[in-house]
Amino acid sequence: MYASANAALIVAQPTLHRAGIVTLLQEAWPAVGITLHADASGLLPILSQQLYDLVVLDCAVLAGPACHFLEQLRKVRSTLPVLLLTSNRLSADVRQYLETHRTSAWSWLPYHATPAAVAALFAAHLPAEAPERARPKPAPRLLPPTPFSRRELEVLRLVVQDHCNQEIANQLCLSVRTVESHRRALLQKAGAKTLVGLAVRAVQHGWVMV
């Protein structure tokens, strides 16, 4: 018997990086159920019995050769969207494997990717909006094309690119205090509680180009 969709599986050790991914999912897709595993043992039988919209797999938890596990995974669920978390440089054997078995459902992401890059990959496989009954509060109604001023959009673009306040101030010739004011306005207008949530919404609504 298959589990219902609208679910994500995260296979990674309990680190701050995993906590950040969980927070991003909870803020942007509150109706998506999240299952956590700290290692890959027993993962293949689980995937043969349950359906997930997305699997996030940290290559660091694989006990053996990554390519061997990926081949087994492909045989179990060839169309399952899988996001591989790796170091900044993809190993040659894994890169060759992914090129040999090209699929739009599989992608990889370095550990230090920006929240916007992570959100963009999630958005490709998860529903754009959660069901209304699952939302703790109704989403704010945004007026087209955006609810932001031109200057706020400039700040938003740099926030999504993971620039700090000082870097934004230097690029836009503003004071740090003015940048902080713009960031507060962005959070309020977007209905986001954190900068991660702001970046996710910016990507989802097309306010910035990733």
From TrEMBL:
<dbReference type="Pfam" id="PF00196">
    <property type="entry name" value="GerE"/>
</dbReference>
<keyword id="KW-0597">Phosphoprotein</keyword>
<dbReference type="InterPro" id="IPR011006">
    <property type="entry name" value="CheY-like_superfamily"/>
</dbReference>
<dbReference type="GO" id="GO:0000160">
    <property type="term" value="P:phosphorelay signal transduction system"/>
</dbReference>
<protein>
    <submittedName>
        <fullName>Response regulator transcription factor</fullName>
    </submittedName>
</protein>
<dbReference type="GO" id="GO:0003677">
    <property type="term" value="F:DNA binding"/>
</dbReference>
<dbReference type="InterPro" id="IPR036388">
    <property type="entry name" value="WH-like_DNA-bd_sf"/>
</dbReference>
<dbReference type="GO" id="GO:0006355">
    <property type="term" value="P:regulation of DNA-templated transcription"/>
</dbReference>
<feature type="modified residue" description="4-aspartylphosphate">
    <location>
        <position position="58"/>
    </location>
</feature>
<feature type="domain" description="Response regulatory">
    <location>
        <begin position="7"/>
        <end position="126"/>
    </location>
</feature>
<dbReference type="InterPro" id="IPR016032">
    <property type="entry name" value="Sig_transdc_resp-reg_C-effctor"/>
</dbReference>
<keyword id="KW-0805">Transcription regulation</keyword>
<dbReference type="InterPro" id="IPR000792">
    <property type="entry name" value="Tscrpt_reg_LuxR_C"/>
</dbReference>
<keyword id="KW-0804">Transcription</keyword>
<feature type="domain" description="HTH luxR-type">
    <location>
        <begin position="141"/>
        <end position="206"/>
    </location>
</feature>
<keyword id="KW-0238">DNA-binding</keyword>
<dbReference type="InterPro" id="IPR001789">
    <property type="entry name" value="Sig_transdc_resp-reg_receiver"/>
</dbReference>
